[in-house]
Amino acid sequence: MRLSVTLVLFLCHNIWSYDYETKYFEVPLDHFSFTTKTTFKLKYLINDTFWTNDGPIFFYTGNEGTIENFAENTGFIFDIAPSFNALIVFAEHRYYGESLPFGNDSFSSLGHLGYLTSSQALADFVDLIDFLSLGKVPVVAFGGSYGGMLSSWLRMKYPASVVGAIAASAPIWQFETSCENFYKVVTQVYKAVTEDCPRLVTESWEALRNIAASAEGKAWLSEAWQLCSPIETPGDVETLIGWYSEILVNMAMVNYPYSTSFLAPLPPFPVKNFCTQFTEANIVDDKSLIMALGDALQIYTNFSETTTCNKINQAAEALGEEGWGFQACTEMIMPMCSIDGDMFENNPWDYGKYASQCLEKWGVNQTHPELPVLEYGGKDIKAASNIVFSNGLLDPWSTGGVLSNVSESVVAVIIPDGAHHIDLRGGNEDDPQTVIEARQFHVENIKKWIREFYFQNDGFLGQD
After folding, report:
1. Binning pLDDT at 50, 70 and 90, where does residue 17 land?
2. What is the pTM of this model?
3. Residue-range domains of the chain with CATH
4. Hey, which residues does 39 pair with through a beta bridge?
């Protein structure tokens, strides 16, 4: 008798660790030109513990970071692989982790960086899939966040390579979404703990700037917040403000009901922990507010109690922030703004200013911010098939996600109490029921896609 999927999920999560073998695959530097034969090694992780020769391949489309970090935080694939006899593959995205086309020189010039695009990455994945499957077994794409965008685009652009895609927290419509929505959701996540929390955060911006207006204040702040390098210039202050803002966003994104170490080692419900400590402090002036804020931020910066100082140019060590900075200046331009009513400093979206900053930093002059919409279809994806878009409503990236069914086979799953791609994480006893149900929905769709593949290719209905 076959075990129920729910029981299999529980057993898998508690018996098997997320083991894998590291391998490398030669891919072209430029898939779309006949003028160069240059190649490089793309890293991928593979686990064949549960695989049989006619089993499917579960293929994770790598994000903006080391692939190991995503493998270790995407336990859902490992949980369901035994019941499908599946081969597990996590493919690293070019220019991240070890998959550097020009080694240590990959970021040294615009000429080297020009091959960092989503379309080149998708072509890498297609070549690797062809090598592994030889067209003989069904391949299901999985991805979360930017990886979820890639998994959905992989199915749209190369439907012969994958039979379907589970695209979790994939903001493929962020390019065409009102810029203020993202920070509104972040604010609501903090407000759900207590209204005092976003109120104090709102007050903290002016307090930070007041203190940092003098050399003495900068020195005090550098020591109070245990910064690795003291802030000394106006540019340093802006870097600090951006770092603090990014931490607030990150805590909302990974506000999971159990301890995790995805972006940083964190306790369960990090937003609640942060807000409770911040709002219970004795605050009487700017300095006491900023001291209380610095202490509360240690929920994110030093929960493991191993951090000796804080690097304000890095809010998520496992992510490739340099590579993503380039992509965000070329093809991944997602308008963001903060306005009255959210807890962040007012910051209108100004494409001209943004483009100037990109030109100064990277030497790129992007004149087509709508490029992903033109390339992948934007909101006009009715011709696509076999994609599940899942979004947690506590995740600010859901504002750019697909929140309703597009067609009979391009469908949306809403997780009201879910954070950033929580449904791709391994099963946990503290999972909300809505997360469990979302995973079950994924499993049923995967079964359907695999049955269709075998029926169309062999007249065989495949696994039940």
Report:
1. low
2. 0.92
3. 5-173+379-458 (3.40.50.1820), 181-362 (1.20.120.980)
4. 28
